[in-house]
Amino acid sequence: MTEFWLISAPGEKTCQQTWDKMMAATTRTNNLSVNHKFSIPDLKVGTLDVLVGLSDELAKLDSFVESVVKKVAQYMADVLEDSRDKVQENLLANGVDLITYITRFQWDMAKYPIKQSLKNISEIISKQVTQIDNDLKARASAYNNLKGNLQNLERKNAGSLLTRSLADIVRKENFVLDSEYLITLLVVVPKTSYPDWQKTYETLAEMVVPRSSNLLFEDNDSGLFGVTLFRKAIDDFKHKARENKFTVRDFQYNEEEMKADKEEMTRLSTDKKKQFGPLVRWLKVNFSEAFIAWIHIKALRVFVESVLRYGLPVNFQAMLLQPNKKTMKKLREVLNDLYKHLDSSAAAIMDVSALPARAKPRQHRRGLLIRQL
Fold first, then answer.
1. pTM of the model
2. Residues 282 and 347 in one domain
3. Does residue 181 sit in the same domain as residue 35?
4. Distance between CA atoms of 283 and 285, rounded to whole angstroms?
5. CA distance 146 to 45
6. Rounded Cα gap, residues 260 and 282, in angstroms
7. How far apart are CA 321 and CA 36, in angstroms?
8. What's 195's domain CATH number?
9. Residues 239 and 99 reside in one and the same domain
10. Sheet containing 33-37, strands listed edge to edge, beginning at the edge strand earlier in sequence
């Protein structure tokens, strides 16, 4: 799991000087982090009241978009099932891996025109991601219902002989059919009780047809026997069978029902395969869309909060730092020393969840704006 810090530092005479200062303090001499410029275009500032209100709205939108990104990613893993090792290769942004996308971030002018106000841009993103969220719920519900119905049928054809469907085990010739007096029952007998079954089945009730017991199927624990008797003896036979720990399965041979069950399983399996490809493609496309929208929200938040913290004219440098895991504490100390001269109107260091969530915002000390990705 890769961690990034998205930092906004107040501008020196030029933004390049701010960048050089950060590089000198964190990378060139002590290898505390790998740094990338984070390009944010000249957005419309608007009024102070709008910026203050937008700051809170963007924080909520950030959390919402993050949740949608995670839901799409998680559902991709669910859909891929046994191919979960392929999840990462399907979770791309603009056709590249996520780290490449954020380290080379460029504002998408076509999707989010910078001539629009900041509020309008945030509303565009909100509507876009809300639609993705709604579509995901609808598609997931339909696919899950299909998958659930198929799994229920598959479960019926698996497991113990005491519970599984017998339709794919028995054959027409195993039964006495269309007889007014005779009926064939199916009995599950533990393997350890085979000798007892052979000795006693003919005496479990009156009117059991002698030598009618046939072993039809076995699993690891039990065997399925067919036995023929007169219909009037069914209740007595079932009662005595229970006493001897033999289980009579409730089953009536019906070719039409058995054929319908097999056709239903074939249909569900075919439908699942048909839906799988388009669903994975939709998830790939919309994960990319949601992730891109999320990083644009990050950029909007950095812009708005930098203007609120550092004032006008707009003069700050946004940077993406990939900390060395072993030196994070040292990196924070270096950043604090580098910008401790900022007065009380400047930003507090903040941790904000992303890629994936780490923590809720919490205030540490006076200093520059840091957002943890």
1. 0.79
2. yes
3. no
4. 6
5. 49
6. 32
7. 6
8. 3.30.70.100
9. no
10. 33-37, 316-323, 5-10, 369-372
